[in-house]
Amino acid sequence: MRRLHTLPLIVCICFLLAGSARAQLAPASLGIFEDHSDVGTVLHAGSVDYEASKQTYTISGSGENMWLAADAFQFAWKKISGDVTLTADISFLTTTGNEHKKAALMLRQSLDADSVYADVALHASGLTSLQFRDEKGAITREIQSNISAPKRLRIAKRGDYVYVSLGASGGEPTVAGGWLRIPLQGEFYVGLGVCSHDKDVVEKAVFSNVELTQRSGIGAGKATLYSTLETVAIDSADRRVAYLAPGRLEAPNWMRDGSAFLFNRDGHIERLAVGSNKPVIIDTGFANRCNNDHGISPDATQIAISDNSQGDHNSLVYLVPITGGAPRRITQKSPSYWHGWSPDGKTLAFVGQRNGDFDIYAIPAAGGQETRLTTAKGLDDGPEYSPDGKYIYFNSERTGHMQIWRMKSDGSEQEQVFSDDLNNWFPHISPDGQWMVFLTYEADVTGHPENKDVMLRLMSLSDSNAKDKKITVLAKLFGGQGTINVPSWSPDSKQVAFVSYMLIPPENMGSDVAAGGRSTDMGPSIAVRHFVAPAYPVVAWLARIEGTVVIDVTIKADGAVRSVKFISWHPVFREAVETAMKQWSFQPASTTADQRVTIRFQLEADCPLTGSAEPSKAYYVQCR
What we know:
Blueprint: E1 3-7, E2 12-17, E3 35-39, E4 47-51, E5 56-61, E6 66-67, E7 70-71, E8 73-80, E9 83-92, E10 102-108, E11 117-123, E12 128-133, E13 141-144, E14 152-158, E15 161-167, E16 174-181, E17 188-195, E18 203-215, E19 224-233, E20 239-246, E21 250-254, E22 260-265, E23 268-273, E24 280-282, E25 295-296, E26 302-307, E27 316-321, E28 328-329, E29 336-341, E30 347-354, E31 357-364, E32 371-372, E33 380-385, E34 391-396, E35 403-408, E36 415-416, E37 423-429, E38 435-441, E39 452-460, E40 471-479, E41 495-504, E42 518-522, E43 527-530, H1 538-542, E44 547-555, E45 561-568, H2 574-581, E46 585-587, E47 595-604, E48 607-610, E49 619-623
Parallel strand pairs: 13-20, 18-42
Antiparallel strand pairs: 1-49, 2-47, 3-8, 4-5, 5-18, 6-7, 8-17, 9-14, 9-18, 10-11, 10-17, 11-12, 12-13, 14-15, 15-16, 19-20, 19-41, 21-22, 22-23, 23-24, 25-26, 26-27, 27-28, 29-30, 30-31, 31-32, 33-34, 34-35, 35-36, 37-38, 38-39, 39-40, 43-46, 44-45, 44-47, 47-48
């Protein structure tokens, strides 16, 4: 009996210039991956079981951890270069074992245990993190997601940056955080990893609906900006996503009782309860052009805001009730930008531009005359009181580039806190007075622009000889303006809130599909003028032979097929494929040189061998 079926596209085409380098193609037993191996020291060898009919990978892995300065896990991988996206549904076969056993989608520079890498790792507990090591031998860091136990996970590399997306069961993943600069050079490894988090145990995880996409360019359109409100613990440098949204939000404050954050967005001040994803706009009356200089009074009854809505639309400082209400104007001159509140609640510190100079001023919180505290040439900015009220810390470019300074609260005894070659902004002192966190730009950056690679750095203030204290990197991120303009310490001095940013390129590029999951290569366009499906040998149907045929086709300048080279195949199909391919013709990209096309056909025992070089097209074939 013969039945007529429409088959979806199941062919991968990779367009490469003749003679260019290409990663080794996957053996059928590993689907879209080339090989697998244990990374690091493991007591029990891992394994990979690929089930072609279901396109699933069951990976067994041991290993003490994927953490600190060395990893130990089982890895199914493929070598690749350029931009890449790896997506999969992940589940563990058992609920027993260590709650931190991990299944991960990984990008890795090498198979060394201490390699540079980034992954999105699902823990058995449901915790999901972007883990990364940005230098060989460095300590692994992580950004914990605010989404627990996602069903579908994705990691993407775009240029030098990596980000992750997560989705619930049956849902397409949505952007979930990252945009970290990870230095993956040349060829690197992409694949699936499993670690038992117990060196004496082997654990299994299943990866299904695996999609591997490679891109050679950027789609048309504008990148999408996302803002991520994060917290970072100063003892571990572990980061956690608190809230993520498209568009720009800026400058978090942490409420005095630790219950919520404040931030500005689209001219308004918003309140976000800790653990919530639904911020609420605070009523600030006519002040509807609030900028990123705002903060909370020591008694938590008022908010200082800086707003551009009135008069000449230069910034002015106002106070509003913590729950919202009519603004009360504090500064009479503009522009003025709030930055600090004295511990007794009586005085505000702000930056004002007067006669062309930006300096630091103090003014009574009840209103009154402003007092100029700095007079040095160059920009002075970011004033903030120490918790004991003795000092005001600030940043100044009076030495030629931006550095951290402090002075007595009356403006006397101005001194540089430390010196380096970088540009340092916005010092914030912990509530216990023991720490200072600040924003650092590279030496060649002028001002405090947005969308730059920056660092949050931490310095101890517990020693009176603070100049000799070591400065550590708390976080590396993509940000700058809006990241940490105002006080953002947690009340217990253990965490800092900040905003990082992502510029996600458009994803509107074409795709091709392969067996063993989905594998896509976005190369130069080579259209097919004439397609002939290979005849399906009767012996293959009788023997129920399944798998893939992968061939390299060299195309002449006129579009005719010059030669066919078999990369991976079953012998029973060779003659049929060669006969069909001699009848194919292409419309190659504009060039006089030969070009090469890699084509992957899917074999199914119930239907003939089929293929297409047009990703959007399906063909009618006859099944026996």
